[in-house]
Design brief:
alpha+beta; Cytochrome Bc1 Complex, Chain A, domain 1; 4 domains; 7-stranded mixed sheet; 6-stranded mixed sheet; 41% helix; globular
Length: 954
Amino acid sequence: MISSKQLAVFQLVKSKSILLLLFLLPLFPISETLGQRSLQDTVPLDPRVTTGKLDNGLRYYIQHNPKPENKLELRLAVNAGSVLEDDSQQGLAHFVEHMAFNGSENFEKNELISYLQSIGVSFGSDLNAYTSFDETVYILPIPTDDEEKLRNGFLVLKDWAGGLLLEGEDIDAERGIIVEEWRTGQGSDQRLRDQYLPVLLKDSKYAERLPIGEMEIVENADYEELRRYYRDWYRPDNMAVVAVGDVAPEKVKELIESYFSDLKNPVDAPKRTSHSVPIQEESMIKIVTDEESPGIQVQLYYKHESQPTVTVKEYKNRIIRTLYGGMLTQRLDEIRQKPQAPFIYAGARYGSFVRSLDFFTTSGAVSTGNTQVGLQAFIVENERALRHGFTEGELERVKRSLANSSERSFKEMDKMESRTMVGRYVSHFLNQGFAEGEAIRYELYQQLLPEITLEEVNAMGRELIRDINRVVIVTAPEKDAESLPTDSELLALFDAVADLDIDPYEEGDLPEVLLSLLPEPGKVVDQSSNEAVDVTSMTLSNGMTVHFKPTAFKNDEILFTGSSKGGASLYPDEDHYSASYASVLVNVMGVGEFSPSNLRKVLAGKNVSVTPNIGTYGENISGSTSPGDLELSLQLIHLYFTAPRMDEELINVYFENQRNQLASAQSNPDFQFNKRLNEIVNDGNLRGMGIYDPEKLDLVDVERGLEIYSDRFANAANFEFLFTGNLDLETMVPLIELYLGSLPGDPVETDDFRDLGIRIPRGRTERIEVGVDEKSQVILYFSGPTEYTLEKSQQLSYLGEILTIKLIETLREEIGGVYGVGARGGLSRTPEESFSFSVSFPCSPDNVESLTEAVWKEIKKIQEEGPEEADLLKVRETKRVSLAENLNRNAFWHSQISAAITSGMPLETVLGAADRVMQVTSEQVKEVAITFLTQENLLEIQKFPLSKSLSTND
């Protein structure tokens, strides 16, 4: 289940963000067939959805969608969350959500999860739920290839809606699990949030109703308090069923009527009231510190009442708010890249705190001593936009981003998967959000974007940025407390900025094209086809091999990867950090004539994503595009091969920011843990070490890094490219010859990687002691050399999923000692053929030893008796369903064929996936458990808080 603490934080930061890939081209014209809507018109629901209400008040939303086949995404949306709890019920809304998986009228305790696993529905990744301030939502994707499975899906939803047993024994058993969930969320973020949340939500009930609740109440609440919350709020007139998937709408409607019509509303049920956050006329400042905070964050909020989402005018206003935040974010990003920038990073957005409260924020991170300067910069940029407005160029670029986004969605609407669509109807029921669908969105964007003027956008700033309802939140490490300004000093900045002379924003000229001169094209010198997987392979005159896998899974998607062997392994130890950072340097400084920010501007509104990377044993360049933007993507690939850019100003700013962030992070226990983990897992081998200390950044030689980068991308013959998606080879081949075939290459001088001897240590136990919170973590990491086979890799994967099922049953459900636990494993071929397998769980420090023993008990049971047949069948069905869906996704085919290419396996290896999944036996799982899960292969890592530290055993 999604952590309620995570949901609470998500509620505070969710926003209507936009992509900032932009291009200076005219907006696409309005189709004559779409017509115009007046601003007073109501924005309709997607015409593909069927809505209605039963006599008892339960609402429903139904949409047929054939992707993926044989699956229906079901949601039960309950219009009730933690804000409706009484003082004696704090945490019980979330508690009820937990109890939905612990016994109901038609499913005994533990039977529900077991049954759903048997039909291919995984607990956590598929079956899930969350509780927030105003709502509780249950998530159930159900197979539809069998009538019984389909009907049982609706039976599950009915039980959640009105058939939970809430037995006292089961309630008591669940208390410890919720405490462990709470424990997992403890840390500096939680402590800081607990201090500033009452200011952001001042004088409202929300400030006192975090969904995770009060643990004293969770551990001791009377059974009847929990049952009363369930009776009061889980009632048909307060719920909706949402169903999107591969079932006829009339069939779904019949099932909803059949299963939910007999639910009754309780007599004298409490009214579902709304809760507001009062307007604060004065500006408020809250500065909070914590000894484990990883850095200084400055957040400037302008709070607003939530905006209505009904009419076209309100839809237009939402677009304008998005445009405003996008343009301001671009300005802040440009400032970030300048010397002596007042902040490390920053952004602006419009979002929602809780149902009744929205916000506009400018926020970011600053270095020690720069808190006042950073906040002043935010206020200045807000004021600059208010006084002088934005430019037409800025507006047009962000318009094109939104236009491109809506056009892509419209093109893909017949290929969208149900899981990406179901949430819009949940939001419509709970928050009255727009649920217009891709076609109407496309229509509205075509109509409204060209109509939106610069004057309208600039006027929106005066609505968003006001002198009332302002809140400034500063969170910082305790060690920086003395350098922080006072409340009055921060408050005075608003008046000080009002008296400043602020110049208008000025934008420099941009090159109009990526490549001013086209290269001399190469030629295809050889071509072959693999009919089994429908892959065409071509060898270019420079020695590069290019593979093409055409699909019809998406209308507007092309994925690509070019990979080569070698990486940082080919350079001596003294070059380790320079080689490791080589691709980072290029991503920071840009290519050709373009800094990264200018590149984003020139690529405005285009589907072009290209990223180079140099790893330990290889390098690659990968990304995604659409058929219409393929040529631009190939041009950018060409530039990344041939024209890495040196920009001392940008790289100096980057390293200064990195030093500040690393220095600030030293006090954070998660950072400390990861630093120590890096040392342990790599056994101190320099070539596996990352940079965790600011002074280590001085070991990165920028010029040497660029030399290494150029060297790794100097020989095109080293690279094999794969393109997957909506491909037209007749159009593509000339472009491939022009932009990839023109790259320098020598087939005689190809490279291979060098084994650096990085190995995970075995037969050891390590204790890492960090942090003040009473929480621990255990990692059992098994590894070692073994012969690589695809069959053995699948068997080890089975072992991980089967062991996860057993550990959830024992550590979570029986013992109540963990919130989450997982096991996973697989094989690798680089740098040697080897296996790895891990078990990991967070827990109380007091339970580390007993829970670790319980893990070993389950491992030894599998080693002695083999897995239970029922568990084997559950994993087999889950993998079968997952594979069936993946076979209709570009990303799956791309990753599988890429793996075959880099591993030197036949391209048709992917075709054996179904057999490998279905043929794993209990005896094989038992055998890999015996072979691999031994003390000799084990690195055991135990994390303890400093207050619970134990002496280390050498």
